[in-house]
Amino acid sequence: xxxxxxxxxxxxxxxxxxxxxxxxxxxxxxxxxxxxxxxxxxxxxxxxxxxxxxxxxxxxxxxxxxxxxxxxxxxxxxxxxxxxxxxxxxxxxxxxxxxxxxxxxxxxxxxxxxxxxxxxxxxxxxxxxxxx
Length: 132
Ligand code: AMP
Fold this sequence. Notes:
Elements: H1 8-13, E1 21-24, E2 28-32, E3 40-46, H2 53-59, H3 62-78, E4 86-89, H4 93-96, E5 105-109, E6 118-119, E7 125-126
Antiparallel strand pairs: 1-2, 2-3, 3-5, 4-5, 6-7
Bound molecules: adenosine monophosphate.
Adenosine monophosphate binds at residues 8, 19, 31, 33-35, 43, 91, 97-100.
């Protein structure tokens, strides 16, 4: 998939639209999801333009990959997700239900999240209702 620089997260990275930022360094930005599916719902994105986890794994530098993993650990600690546990999800492509074509990881926590996936009435895989 070719990267589309008009996607919403690219606009956030260029400060064309606002976000509720929780973390930033040279390689990573993290902000609150606009429609949270759990009491804590944070999106972690690389600042580089990568469409999904496959693109990130193939093209990102070691420095970017390390920075992304370290940022997740720092954010989990800062947001009090570490002690009670949390879920990290990366949706990829059509079957994964990826809506925004800029690689991102969801960090969800603040309550017990139940089953990992369930089917809604359209047969699509979603977080279970009790995760909201
Ligand atoms: P995905 O379905 O994995 O691509 O997830 C995209 C996520 O981006 C969804 O959970 C949306 O609620 C979230 N989202 C979309 N627009 C914004 C925005 N402007 N600020 C924060 N989160 C957003």
